Amino acid sequence: MAEEQLIESFADKKPAEPVIEFKGVSKTYPSGTHALEDVNIRINKGEFVFVVGSSGAGKSTFMKLIMREEKANTGYINVNGYNLTKMRRKQVPLLRRTMGIVFKDFRLIPTKNVFDNVAFAMHVVGESGREVRREVSKALSKVGLGEKARSMPRQLSGGEQQRVGLARALVNAPDLIIADEPTGNVDPNMSYEIVELLTEINKRGTTILMVTHDHQLVREFKHRVIMLDKGRIIADNAAGGAE
Amino acid sequence: MKFSSVRYLIKDGFKGAWANRLMSLASIGVLIACMVIIGLAILISENVNMAIGNLEKENVVIVYMKDYNWALYGDELAVNDDTSSDVESGEDAENVEDTENETASDENAEETVDEKDVPDENGIKYSDYVIHNEQEAEKLRADIAALDNVAEAVYISSEEGLENAKAQMLGEQADYFTFLDDAYGNPMSAAVKVSMVDMSLFDETLEQIEKMNGVDTIQSYREIAQKINTLKQAIYVAGFWIIAILAIIALVIVSNTIRVTMYNRKLEISIMKAVGATDAFVRIPFVVEGLIIGLISALLSEVIIYFCYRVATEKIKDVLGSVISFREVSVYLLLVFIAIGIFAGIFGSFIMIRKYLKREGSEFTAI
Fold it and tell me: How many CB pairs under 8 A join A and B?
């Protein structure tokens, strides 16, 4: 299978620094909406970056371009060593395996229990059963859900569900974790815990890119902040604590 | 793809079918309904075909031979025009029969050979007729039987022919007319009773037989043959369309059921894609699920149709005379069902999932 050969040939490829690089990127949707205009950005390995901005500022498009859910109209994008501007459709799964994604709405499979929801991400990359059991248990312990491995998602609180999502994102030990408003559907205490958890993961060298509306969190955790407005970067505060 | 992945995906397919058992049950129900209707259509058409086949077998063709009796009584030669010698001719006929039946004896054979061109007491020469003995009659029968479209060719001696004719014309009262034989002799020529495989080749086959040396006239039921042929064609065409339309309906309904299943599971597909699953990885569990649903439906349909057919045949046996036993068609039906099940299950999910594979992230929520 050509796809499999492709996966194997890319498997050993080490991501080049920077982790994320945008050069003169613009994105206009077929409806005519200018989502991003001439965006230039560079996020290096090991950084923790908050992406903030009001609704319609271009945050979602920015994330979608990184995940290659959308293609840029102009400019150059490089993520984890992959040139997204020249990427073929078959290579997209390989790119996504280098990153962990955390969603605002958790996106857990309702018919699979906690363990299987996390294990699923490892099966996708073709890990063997023994490895899967070991790593999933480790990931669940890391997010404090070791005891709830057999629970179904509907039996968990919002915060717990998001922690399952987080375990799924980090189980493959990715170089980059993209969190799209991970605290959007959880209470403030849990939000704090989730960002703390992400910070801990970041300390071990994983690059974190987190979209948020929660200014309180941004002020609390002193990380780099990129602010978007009307598709343009209006502030990039490497020192953290943006308004 | 690694073996562990394949094992995981197959297991996941089973789990998926169970986890979404309500939708699986709906799909199985729809598939069973379609399969049972198709199965019944097949059984009905098979039974009608069998009934027509029986009719065909009865609708035989009689090929008369140019034997001694033909020479003696046939119109073409009209050798025996002495109407006053009725009794004699009757006796002669018996003699002729004897001669015909005993050609194996050297004495008669030599006599015939020696007096080849000398007319006998009835004025018949050896060269006046074609079929001189049983060997030649058997050869003609074998030649007819060897034709592609001939199902059966049975030799009928002139005595048998007369008996049959009397039975047909006079029925049970035939016995009262035995004096006819005594008085006039047997005018029947030996014949071959032919039944055909395919009535649509009726004319061509008759033509082939007519050309054979030693064949006199052919008594056939051309009109009935044509009617049966037309009826058979009509049933074939109607059966084909009924089954084709039902199969299309089945596929449309199954596709819709799968579409609903996919719609319910678009979240699952979007997550699979987000964590880096290849198209094949997303597809296989759904295809396995489709396969399981298809196979379960096929087996249940076979069981249901067995009971339906048993009940139905008990009631219609008297009308149709005989029906095809379920055992005869059970394997064929099961194969048809499995084929439909596999086709609907695998191709249904394969085709329907394509639409979702092309979508990305938020596009799923927009569906």
Answer: 73
Could you tell me which residues of chain A have a Cβ less than 8 Å from any Cβ in chain B? 1, 3-4, 7, 60, 64, 67, 69-70, 90, 93-97, 101, 103, 107-112, 120-121, 123-129, 168
Q: What percent of chain A has pLDDT over 90?
A: 48
Q: What letter would DSSP give residue A183?
A: T
The 10s digit of each residue's pLDDT in A153-187 is 999 988 899 999 999 998 988 989 999 888 888 88
In this prediction, residue B101 carries a pLDDT of 47
The β-bridge partners of B64 are B191
Classified as helix, coil or strand, A230 is coil
Please give, one letter per residue, the 3-state secondary structure of B249-270. HHHHHHHHHHHHHHHHCHHHHH
A168 found inside a domain: yes
To which residue do tokens 């047997």 refer? B186
Residue A117 belongs to what domain range? Answer: 113-172
Q: Give domain status of residue A95, yes or no.
A: no
Is A162 inside a domain boundary?
yes
Domain for residue A23, yes or no?
A: no
CA distance A77 to B66: 97
Structural domains present in chain B = 3-56+229-365 (no CATH), 60-220 (3.30.70.3040)
Q: Which residues contact A93 (CB under 8 A, 6 or more apart)?
A: A7, A124, B273, B276, B277, B278, B281
**Residue among A123, A161, A166 with most chain B CBs within 10 A, to mutate:** A123
Beta strands in B201-355 (DSSP E): 215-219
- Which tens digits make up the pLDDT trace of B77-135? 444 444 433 434 444 444 444 444 444 444 444 445 555 677 777 777 777 788 878 88
The distance of B16 to chain A (nearest Cα, Å) reads 8
pLDDT band at residue A4, thresholds of 50, 70 and 90? low
Name the amino acid, one letter, at B268. E
Tell me the DSSP string of B169-203.
HHGGGGGGGTHHHHHH---PPPEEEEEES-GGGHH
Specify the number of domains making up chain A.
1
Query: Which residue has tokens 């004896």?
Result: B105
ipTM of the complex: 0.80
Residue A123 in tokens? 């099966």
Cis amide leading into A174 (omega within 30): no
Which range among A64-78, B102-116, B152-166, B346-360 shows the weakest confidence by mean pLDDT? B102-116
The pLDDT score that the predictor gives to residue A75 is 94
